[in-house]
Amino acid sequence: MIRRVRRAIHGLYERLLERELSGVPTHVAVIQDGNRRYADRRGQGTAAGHRAGAETTEAMLDWCAELGIEELTLYAFSTENFDRPPAERAELFDLIEEKLYQFADDEKVHEERVRIRAIGQLHRLPERVRTAIDYAEAQTEGYDSQYLNVALGYGGRAELLAAARDIAADVERGDVSSDAIDVATVEERLSERPARAVDLIIRTGGDERTSNFLPWHANGNEAAVFFCAPYWPEFSRVDFLRAVRTYQSRRESWQRTRAERAVALLKAVGADERQRLLGRLRSQNADIDLSDERVEEVEIELAAD
User: Fold this and answer.
1) At what angle do helices 127-139 and 86-105 cross, to 10 degrees?
2) What are the binding positions for substrate in this chain (predicted)?
3) pLDDT tens string 236-249
4) Which residues are annotated as a binding site for Mg(2+)?
5) Which of 83, 113, 231, 286 lies deepest, with the highest CB count within 10 Å?
6) 277 near 269, Cβ under 8 Å?
7) Are 145 and 37 contained in the same domain?
8) Residues 127 and 269 both lie in one domain
9) CA angle, 170 as apex, 165 and 171 as ends, to 5°?
């Protein structure tokens, strides 16, 4: 009886969260932490924890599809994970290999036209894992409705360091002028980069840090971050909806700040310059409130000053 009541309350809360959402992120990145601690708490081996986490990963793909999230990046294996005991690394590589083949052959992946890509220092992975990566990427190469990026042997600092070395080599050869280096120059060197900037980073397991994950791609300082206590195998759809709600709150705050800055800028210039500047602001900042009504309010405020 108590369980039924709890399930009913949980379902009501889930539906309430769904109704509260007015926008979803385009790109979600997940640090799947807590598999080993989940297994330890249940008196199981680490392999059982990783397999339980893989089930959450499959559910996560469905949740993203249901909400219309276009890109998902999973932190499956970091550069630091190479320091784990050999037996545990082998278990992880077994599971990664298995899941890559499974996803590549999954009917839903092909129905939804999901493109699978691996990012990271792939040359450090076992050959059998690299073969599975090649298979998954080849099977989904032509798709562009959704993206699933699997970070394997990934470290953000290593990625940026490699890009910096490539640029330095180009400058030394005279192929690139140091004065011409800009954001686009760096992004060109980030091979197999995610298709979109990251809007929301989720970390499970209780730790509040982003662990060298996608530092360049996290949309500057605008990406929302959601930390939660459940271990990855326990992460539920309600937790996911709460994470999306955090993104929504962050986005609304960001929009208000941008609008306030734009209005302050409009007030600081003369009437002739204001119309030219307004056109530029509207074309470059589609998400902020620069409606005719808001601009009229600015004109009234200026007239009153």
Assistant:
1) 20
2) 34-37, 50, 78-80, 82, 84, 203, 209-211
3) 999 999 999 888 87
4) 33, 222
5) 231
6) yes
7) yes
8) no
9) 95
Residues 69 and 205 in one domain: yes
* pLDDT tens, residue by residue, 153-180: 998 888 888 889 989 998 989 888 888 8
Binding residues for substrate: 34-37, 50, 78-80, 82, 84, 203, 209-211
Does 274 lie in the same domain as 226? no
pLDDT higher than threshold 90 for residue 206: yes
Instruction: Please state, in angstroms and rounded to a whole number, the distance separating the CA atoms of residues 224 and 231.
Output: 20
Host domain of residue 278? 256-304
Write down the mean pLDDT value for the chain.
Answer: 83
Question: Is there a single domain that holds both residue 71 and residue 148?
Answer: yes
- Per the annotation, binding residues are 33-37, 50, 78-80, 82, 84, 203, 209-211, 222
Q: Is residue 1 part of a domain?
A: no
pLDDT, tens digit, 9 for 90 and up, residues 130-153? 999 999 999 999 998 999 999 999
Segment holding 242, helix H or strand E? helix 237-268
Both 230 and 216 in one domain: the answer is yes
Q: Are 140 and 171 in contact (CB under 8 A)?
A: no
- Residues that are catalytic: 33, 81
Nearest to 99 by CA among 30, 43, 52: 52
Check whether residue 158 and residue 297 sit in a common domain. no
